[in-house]
Amino acid sequence: MTDTAETRDTNPLLDWTDFPDFGRIEPPHVEPAIDAVLERAGAELAAIEAATPTNWDELMAPLERLGDRIERAWGVTGHLHAVRNNVPLREAYQKAQPKIVQFLHRLGQSRWLFDGYVGLQAGDEYAGYDGARRRVLDSAVRDARLAGVELDGPKRERFLAIGKELAELGTRFQNNVMDATKAFSLTLTEPDEIAGLPATARQLAAEAARAA
User: Which of 31, 66, 144, 178 could join 114 via S-S bond, C-beta 3.0 to 4.6 A?
Assistant: First the structure.
């Protein structure tokens, strides 16, 4: 699915005109939205590389916009996965997650981008950057190194495999915590066991107990 005006109208995860419309976002929206965002990001990344940028506005600014769109769609998805954790949403999240991880590794391990960052650091413009720009650029260089940009061959592939495995394990752990939280209950039978609780809290606890 391509990120177009039509898809933004039908998929609330792609509607960025205002705050996220959490009430409209459903599990079937997740994978198409992520596919659309990553397709657009891939095309934009290819355009940046083809333009051989040599300054901040040509390299860092478009990368920032690209990253913001990914963060918007995936950040909202991750938030819903954490607070509205159910089977359909888990499945949608787990289908989209490897695609996100792979693209972020592509960004992080891009030798071309890394060389661009280092070139900006060594260029004449760097001395005129304010503190914020220096911080962003220095962090980009550091993060690329931590993402394995200087690895080659089997080591690079192994790094990517480890990253995917860590993401999957993190999601599984989060799901297990949610399941354990939902399954936990504490039965109180004596008045002194709820001493100090406000009346509203006691009422909510009683209603939850009756519903269970």
Answer: 144
